[in-house]
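FAQ

Q: What does a record look like?
A: Structure on top, sequence underneath. For example:
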């Protein structure tokens, strides 16, 4: 996506299974099947709930109805929204609440069985009840997927993460086990941020 932004620049490396993702030779279609993305603002497609979930499978050429039905149910259950939408799968996903729409986007991401799910501030636009549901969902999903979440909410980072990395102005300041980062950081800059001295 950064290729679409003329002013974007890339420093450093991003490796996935030992391969640089920013190399021109990288097969981005294959990469997108292996790494799911959930954005800050929920972005359901202007399609039915069902078609949102099967979108990636259809692109990959999967059209068997029994297979698609099974994936829809499994993904919606995994995203903790099956009971809320199972009777309206043909309704537009655009009619859902913010928290529901975000869980539909998570279900869409996991429908293709990625290895990694990237989440960019997935709760920033949500109310506290929806935030709790997403956090509970992250807790469940992390046993099956590697989840990388970006958040400015330190309480959320402490609640949902096992490993925390603190970045400041694009530089990695410190990384380690979440408990250690939050209770006994090695860098003063990390401590200052966590204790609210700046940020």
């Amino acid at each position: 996506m950064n290729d679409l932004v003329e002013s974007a620049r890339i420093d450093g490396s991003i490796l996935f299974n030992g391969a640089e993702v920013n190399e021109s030779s990288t097969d981005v279609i294959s990469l997108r099947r292996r790494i799911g993305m959930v954005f800050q603002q929920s972005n359901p497609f202007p399609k039915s709930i069902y078609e949102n979930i099967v979108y990636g499978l259809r692109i990959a050429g999967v059209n068997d109805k029994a297979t698609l039905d099974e994936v829809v149910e499994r993904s919606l259950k995994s995203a903790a929204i099956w009971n809320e939408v199972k009777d309206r799968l043909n309704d537009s996903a655009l009619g859902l609440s913010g928290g529901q729409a975000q869980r539909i986007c998570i279900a869409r991401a996991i429908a293709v069985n990625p290895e990694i799910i990237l989440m960019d501030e997935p709760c920033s636009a949500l109310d506290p009840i929806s935030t709790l549901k997403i956090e509970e969902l992250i807790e469940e999903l992390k046993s099956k997927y590697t989840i990388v979440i970006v958040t400015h909410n330190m309480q959320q980072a402490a609640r949902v993460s096992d490993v925390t990395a603190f970045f400041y102005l694009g530089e990695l300041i410190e990384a380690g086990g979440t408990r250690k980062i939050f209770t006994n950081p090695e860098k003063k800059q990390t401590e200052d941020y966590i204790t609210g001295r700046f940020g």
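Q: Is there anything notable about this one?
A: The first strand starts at residue 15 and ends at 16.
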